[in-house]
Amino acid sequence: MRGKSKMEGRGAHLCFTIIMILLAASPFLVSSTSMIQFLGKCICYSIVAIALDLIWGYTGMLSLGHGIYFCLGGYAMAMYLRLRDNGGTITEFMQTGGLSELPLFWKPFLNFPLALFLIIFIPGLLAAVLGFFVFHSRIKGVYFSIITQALTWASYSLFIANSKYTGGNNGITDFTSLFGSTRGNANRGHLLSMFFLALAALIIVYVLASFLVKSKFGKILIAIRDGENRTYFSGYCVNNYKNFIYTLSAVLTAIGGALFVNFNGSITPSQMTIAFSITMVIWVAVGGRGTIIGAIIGTFFINLCEYNLSSGTLASIWQYIIGAIFCITILFFKGGIVGLVKRQFSSGIQRSKTKKEAA
Description:
Layout: H1 2-29, H2 33-56, H3 67-86, H4 92-96, H5 112-136, H6 142-161, H7 163-166, H8 188-214, H9 216-226, H10 228-233, H11 238-264, H12 274-287, H13 292-309, H14 318-332, H15 336-358
Helix pairs in contact: 1-8, 2-8, 2-11, 2-12, 2-13, 3-5, 3-11, 5-11, 8-9, 8-11, 12-13, 12-15
């Protein structure tokens, strides 16, 4: 079993290396800047999928509210970028809302190092506080999912209602990336810089997640997933483990959101909806829950399907197609794409051994 596990780990790392090489080469193989931006968004989404997989795939906690952490990171980065591009003055939606000076909570985002700190700190603090009360109350299963869903809905309503501070339905728009404008071939250099920064972040997150799940800490997470009560009575403080991994997952999701806005050029409350949080779950489920590489594969697979199906003759039914893929995966391929490949690979090895023994 240990040898098989090592082989699977090497296979996952090899697959990840191939994907990274293809992604690194893609800006030089495609001329369309819009395609590079799309791939950049997929890289950011992959970071989010890995974060969700850590708590759902490895710890057994299904969050339906990770959109809030994605948006907190995204809004924090967008606030800095908008202020930088505005020269530190108030925005149009603030003027429309009757404000004459920059709100107090916007002022820290004038400073880039402080903005980076807040991108991590605010989502991490919210997740840590929520996790403390939820996990110490022994809330789990569907009740945990409902609480995270309710938090996302409440946050969505809060951001919509306070339009003079958040931009309301329109969110924060009209800003450029960390390296400047990424629109058009004239700014291709800026886009490539942002693309490779996001790619480097994905590699770091993958290495961190792989290390965690292979360590003793990761084994305890899996034990919690497979038998929380048994792990609790074995002497482990389950609540602290769950709270730590939930907080880490929130921070990684926020980082993905902060990188995303550099490619998207805007952030709106639509990324905070329950539908978007469920989409994250689909990425992980289709790719292969409980496998870090599966989260990445599922993210690219679903988003490439959406990219190709959401225009043309299938534009009106593409969401039904994605939903059908998710349902089929849950019903017939619980291990997702990675699980299907593993079964085919194992069957091939078994057939090869049988033929050798027969010979």
